Amino acid sequence: MEKLTRQEEEAMQAIWKTGEGNVKLFLENLPSEAMPYTTLASTIKNLEKKGYLSSRLIGNAYLYKPAVTEDEYKKKFMNGFVKEYFADSYKELVNFFVEEKKLSAKELKEIIDLIERSGSK
Questions:
Q1: Contact of 48 with 4, CB cutoff 8 Å
Q2: Residue 1 — very low, low, confident or very high, per pLDDT cuts 50/70/90?
Q3: I need a surface site. Which of 16, 59, 73, 92 has the fewest CB within 10 A?
């Protein structure tokens, strides 16, 4: 699975939100004025070539749908991100957010509660 560009990720967010659809429908699910129709159409073709989308021809229009789920993408690239930037340590990742004041004590307690609940299952 190839890493997506920022523009491709924005397109995939709209596609995952929409499910199956055409370029016009995906454009409606992008943040306003995120990219022009022709740019999105080109991006969709690239995503199909990369294996992120599948398509089928209905009449004279193509319908596209995700070939990769959002969860599959997140899992693949978050694991790589942690490995590359935090020496494969989720503890270092959390520490980074604490030091940058992006994670409060309350949020950290909520994370601990989630870990403890999932560990008891």
A1: no
A2: confident
A3: 59
| Percentage of the residues of the chain whose pLDDT score is greater than 90 | 74
Per residue in 36-77, pLDDT (tens digit) is: 999 999 999 999 999 999 999 999 999 999 999 999 999 988
Beta-carbon contacts of residue 13 (< 8 Å; ≥ 6 apart): 30, 70
Structure tokens at 96: 């980074």
Whole-angstrom Cα distance, residue 105 to residue 30? Answer: 34
| DSSP codes joined into one string, 88-101 | T-HHHHHHHHHHTT
Cα–Cα distance measured from residue 21 to residue 120, given in angstroms and rounded to the nearest whole number: 41
Q: Which helix (H) or strand (E) holds 54?
A: strand 53-58
Tokens representing 60?
A: 């004279």
Give, rounded to a whole angstrom, the gap between the first and last alpha carbons of the chain. 31
46 neighbors 8 (Cβ within 8 angstroms) = yes
Half-sphere exposure of 1 (CA within 13 A, CB side): 16
